[in-house]
Write a structure and sequence with these properties.
mainly alpha, 97 residues
Amino acid sequence: MRGAVPLGGPEKTITDETVLMEAMETREALADAQTVAEVKAITDRAQADIGSCTQDLSAAFHRGDLTAAAALIVRLTYLQKLEGEAAQRARRLSRSE
């Protein structure tokens, strides 16, 4: 990405406060989830957010807005990781039900 400074440097930390708060709150909800249905609700929201984030990312690239694209890539990475963590949590819960 020419001329854009990626958000969340090489240590892969989230520097966008909004995304950081979203990540913390969602991870807390995932940790507190006691049923597969609760995890599914978190997964469904993450998948919907992935879809809208992907559309926003496409639009940012189309506009040539590399700063926005970089921020969206950070959020998309977080959402995809969350989706994987939710799938693992659902498997663990389904084994214990």
